[in-house]
Design the sequence.
């Protein structure tokens, strides 16, 4: 896993270069059509926000990109080449890393160990093993600092960090292991205002590092703070697809809240 990802780390990314392109992508689960007609672009050095209510199809979209469930309509291209991923490993090998809301971290393990979890520097015997451990600690510390993440002690259990800090460690980890596309599954959903701000800063840092970021969220305010491109999904279809220049926060919020449906509801409730 490390090698395949790391092999992408050296590749120079050019801002605006398309990393993922979807043309008319759709996905059905038996008779249920979860997504249809999706045209999504993920470009290097940009944040693509995908917004939508429950059941809109956000998770299905993530699953297609991260290799959990292959699409069964349309074309998915990575670096211009059509692909159908049949496992998360394949997606990862293309430099696509997904950070889930319920992070797969081991709470009692030290921060540095979680940083390297599954991708440890190969140890060898004493005294080599000890050297590798020291090196891993140094790297984790260095990489977190590089992204401006302040952890008191790299040896503290990751469970002692806040939810926001844990998201940040996961982002730094993906960047270090050579991710070119970072998919963030509602990274601010369970967080308060301050912690959300911390995470949004690292979303911006990942973009500045040249990655293509897919930011999945319910929250138009969070999306607008970091987004370059906005897609709203509704019942599996694209309800809005605009660049930052083309859409205001107000319009995004109204569209996300249901626009006409909301006006209709407040009419029904007798409120203006
Ligand atoms: N494995 C599955 N089998 C059958 N139907 C599914 C499956 N996964 C999702 N669906 C259906 O596809 C549609 C889109 O679901 P999806 O989970 O992608 O939405 P979502 O936007 O992520 O919602 P939420 O925010 O609630 O997670 C829903 O109607 C859902 O019931």
Sequence:
């Amino acid at each position: 896993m490390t090698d395949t990802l790391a092999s992408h780390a050296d590749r120079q990314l050019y801002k605006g270069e398309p990393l993922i392109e979807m043309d008319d992508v759709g996905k059905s689960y038996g008779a249920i059509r979860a997504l249809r007609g999706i045209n999504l672009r993920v470009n290097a050095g940009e944040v693509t926000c995908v917004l939508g209510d429950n059941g809109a199809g956000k998770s299905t979209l993530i699953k297609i990109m991260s290799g959990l469930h292959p699409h069964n309509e349309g074309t998915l291209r990575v670096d211009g080449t059509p692909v159908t991923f049949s496992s998360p490993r394949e997606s990862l090998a293309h430099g696509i890393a997904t950070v889930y809301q319920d992070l797969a971290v081991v709470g009692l393990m030290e921060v540095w160990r979680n940083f390297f979890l599954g991708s440890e520097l190969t140890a060898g015997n004493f005294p080599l093993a000890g050297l590798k451990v020291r090196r891993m600690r140094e790297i984790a510390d260095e990489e977190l600092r590089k992204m401006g993440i302040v952890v008191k002690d790299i040896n503290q259990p990751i469970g002692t960090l806040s939810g926001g800090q844990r998201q940040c460690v996961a982002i730094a980890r993906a960047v270090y292991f050579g991710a070119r596309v970072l998919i963030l599954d509602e990274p601010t959903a369970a967080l308060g205002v301050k912690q959300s701000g911390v995470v949004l800063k690292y979303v911006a840092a990942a973009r500045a590092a040249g990655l293509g970021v897919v930011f999945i969220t319910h929250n138009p305010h969070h999306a607008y703070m970091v987004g370059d491109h906005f897609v709203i999904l509704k019942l599996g279809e694209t309800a809005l697809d605009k660049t930052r220049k083309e859409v205001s926060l107000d319009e995004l919020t109204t569209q996300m809240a249901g626009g006409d449906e909301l006006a209709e509801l407040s009419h029904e409730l007798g409120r203006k």
Notes: The chain is about 40% helix and 25% strand. The longest strand covers residues 18-29.
